[in-house]
């Protein structure tokens, strides 16, 4: 009996001691606003810098504190979470289709693309990360089909980044801007995708997982966002950025979730936050974190770090996301067909 | 004890076991510890003062504690009913208990989302009660409860099966009421299994990841457990944070296991 008492006592005391050090938390009474941010994984370092800035501005302007609850998951997972009931006030996602899913669920009731930047807050381009010194001499999409090259790209079923990657390769091929591939030939473009996907060794669930695994030494090359490579290099990684001659412009949407802000009574502060993110000051911070920006002033200021791409196209080249989500990434769509051919061999 | 000369065969066997355990368990632990102190003590101290680390550890502990308490009561009850009562569907029920072993945490989280998510079956009910399950701590608690179900039950079943009914009958003859019979006759025989059940349940609850990430949404400072904190830190390339949190988690679990082992040894010594 004595031992069990000791055990219980020990167990409870250790647990209590540790559970006790909760440290305040984000509880707030009156005079405190709260914003729940649901974001995809790539811009989190930028938000880490932007949020404190907005907090002090909001305090100075209104005398109110604003606390943030932040969640960073893959864009698709995040979008589904909001649809399933994660009560985010504002969503910052990788692609417009993920915002549209929330809109279709009835949670966003306004036309979120109705502003100066079509609802986008940042952009980037699909690019490659290669090992230091580019030992395999990879310059363009056509090099990715060479046999024996190990490629990392995330899973399009889970990650917005992965969809951009697939669209980048497929679009560049269709436009006839890849060596050895005639333009406007869907057959040849599918062959390219097939060859690339055959070389893919790891498919992670998010763009960030993919690049971090690349840093762990897996693979010869990662297809990823330009900003992921720049952020990685900033944190001391020595891989290099390769921009293909023809690639897709990634447009990252941001939108207020009407139903949730009205429920929380947080519309005013959330709108102020959104406006803040589009100011030249905030956009400059995005630019520091590897993202191309939509504010013309900030874009001009950071132009030297973001070279122009010879042939840059947008998702509109494929008519739009509604089309893409059905014809390319829908069940039995082009991606599924290519993948089937890859696995068959 | 008689000291035996070890044969060559025995030595080889011992060697194989030592090498296997060394590679499987000791090597990763050494890797973890060196990872923590790779850049000296300064970053470690910085990590230890992070409020988000405290909050996530605290949340993990709170969930684990409540799960242990609930599982101790209901696990024991389930085991008792399964051993002592005969009823229809008993075999089915017995089989159901092991389901959490077979289902991955991510699936558990998703099943709960299907129940409690905005389009879920039970959502109208919880919404009407103005209660949050999905993307809140109650959902994470349910998920952890689910994955921890088998441990207590599986520990207690053999104990109840091996109980000496004669002792109970004797106690009853001597006029002991049900409560007294439980406390004086049955409970003492449960102790070792109870300690093990608690230890295993606690360790499993602290280590749960997939289900709590899916149902909790990984909201910093609110639904972020220690394991989710580690996952996020790795993603953010905050490696020291991740290693330190992992080390604390590992340390807690090892501590609990060691204490449980120590108590078991002390009991055996007393009995012999």
Structure description:
The complex is a heterodimer of chains A (345) and B (272). With 345 residues, chain A is of the alpha/beta class. Chain A contains 14 helices and 11 strands. Helix content of chain A is 45%, strand content 17%. In chain A, strands 1, 2, 3, 4, 5, 6, 7, 8, 9, 10 and 11 form an 11-stranded mixed sheet that branches. Chain B has 2 domains: 1-36; 41-271, Orthogonal Bundle (MetI-like fold). Chain B is globular. The mean pLDDT of chain B is 90. The interface between A and B is large, with 43 and 43 residues.
Cα distance spanning the termini of chain B: 13 Å
Number of strands of chain B: 0
Question: N-to-C SSE series of chain A?
Answer: HEHEHEHEEHHEHEHEEHHHEHEHH
CATH topology-level name of the largest domain in chain A:
D-Maltodextrin-Binding Protein, domain 2
User: Helix share of residues of chain A?
Assistant: 40-55%
Q: Quickly count the helices of chain B.
A: 13
Quaternary structure of the protein: heterodimer
- Low-pLDDT residue spans of chain A: 21-28
String of helices and strands of chain B: HHHHHHHHHHHHH
Number of domains of chain B: 2
In short:
Chain A is an alpha/beta fold. Chain A has helices spanning 2-20, 44-62, 75-84, 96-104, 160-174, 186-198, 207-215, 226-234, 258-264, 267-277, 280-288, 296-301, 321-327, 334-344; strands at 32-39, 65-72, 90-92, 120-130, 151-152, 200-202, 221-225, 240-242, 246-256, 292-293, 311-313.
């Amino acid at each position: 009996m004595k031992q069990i008492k000791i055990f219980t006592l020990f167990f409870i005391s250790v647990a209590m001691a540790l559970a006790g050090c909760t440290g305040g938390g984000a509880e707030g009474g009156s005079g405190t606003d709260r914003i729940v941010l649901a974001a995809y994984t790539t811009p989190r370092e930028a938000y880490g810098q932007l949020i404190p800035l907005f907090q002090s501005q909001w305090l100075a302007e209104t005398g109110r504190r604003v606390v943030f609850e932040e969640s960073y998951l893959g864009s698709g997972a995040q979008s589904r979470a909001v649809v399933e009931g994660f009560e985010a006030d504002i969503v910052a996602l990788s692609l417009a289709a993920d915002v549209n899913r929330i809109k279709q669920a009835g949670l966003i009731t306004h036309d979120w693309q109705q502003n100066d930047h079509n609802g986008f807050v940042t952009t980037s381009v699909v690019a490659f990360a290669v090992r230091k010194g580019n030992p395999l001499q990879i310059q363009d999409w056509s090099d990715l089909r060479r046999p024996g090259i190990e490629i990392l790209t995330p899973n399009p079923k889970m990650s917005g980044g992965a969809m951009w990657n697939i669209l980048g390769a497929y679009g560049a091929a269709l436009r006839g801007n890849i060596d050895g591939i005639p333009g406007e030939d869907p057959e040849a473009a599918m062959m390219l995708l097939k060859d690339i996907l055959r070389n893919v060794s790891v498919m992670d669930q998010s763009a960030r997982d993919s690049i971090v695994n690349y840093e762990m030494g897996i693979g010869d090359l990662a297809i990823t966002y330009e900003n992921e490579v720049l952020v990685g290099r900033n944190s001391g990684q020595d891989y290099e950025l390769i921009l293909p001659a023809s690639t897709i412009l990634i447009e990252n949407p941001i939108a207020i979730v009407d139903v949730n802000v009205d429920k929380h009574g947080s519309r005013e502060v959330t709108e102020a936050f959104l406006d803040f993110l589009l100011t030249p000051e905030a956009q400059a911070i995005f630019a520091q974190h590897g993202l191309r920006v939509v504010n013309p002033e900030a874009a001009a200021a950071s132009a030297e770090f973001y070279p122009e791409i010879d042939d840059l196209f947008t998702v509109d080249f494929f008519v739009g996301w509604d089309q893409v989500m059905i014809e390319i990434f829908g069940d039995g769509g082009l991606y599924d067909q290519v993948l089937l051919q890859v696995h068959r061999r | 004890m008689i000291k035996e000369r070890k044969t060559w065969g025995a030595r080889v066997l011992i060697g194989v076991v030592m090498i296997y355990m060394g590679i499987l368990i000791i090597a990763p632990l050494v890797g973890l510890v060196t990872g923590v102190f790779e850049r000296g003590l300064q970053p470690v101290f910085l990590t230890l003062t992070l409020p988000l680390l405290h909050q996530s550890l605290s949340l993990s502990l709170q969930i684990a504690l409540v799960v242990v308490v609930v599982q101790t009561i209901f696990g024991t009850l389930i085991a008792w009913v399964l051993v002592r009562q005969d009823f229809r569907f008993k075999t089915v029920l017995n089989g159901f208990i092991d389901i959490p072993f077979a289902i991955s945490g991510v699936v558990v989280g998703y099943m709960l989302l299907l129940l409690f998510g905005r389009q879920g079956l039970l959502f109208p009910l919880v919404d009407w009660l103005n209660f949050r399950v999905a993307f809140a701590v109650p959902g994470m608690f349910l998920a952890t409860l689910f994955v921890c179900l088998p441990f207590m039950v599986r520990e207690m079943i053999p104990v109840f099966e091996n109980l000496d009914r004669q002792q109970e009958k004797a106690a009853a003859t001597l006029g002991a009421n049900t409560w007294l019979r439980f406390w004086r006759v049955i409970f003492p025989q449960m102790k070792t299994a109870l300690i093990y059940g608690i230890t295993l349940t606690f360790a499993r609850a602290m280590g749960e990841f997939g289900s709590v990430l899916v149902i909790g949404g990984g909201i910093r400072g609110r639904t972020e457990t220690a394991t989710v904190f580690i996952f996020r830190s790795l993603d953010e390339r905050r490696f020291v944070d991740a290693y330190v949190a992992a080390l604390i988690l590992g340390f807690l679990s090892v501590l609990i296991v060691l204490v449980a082992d120590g108590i078991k040894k002390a009991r055996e010594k007393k009995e012999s």
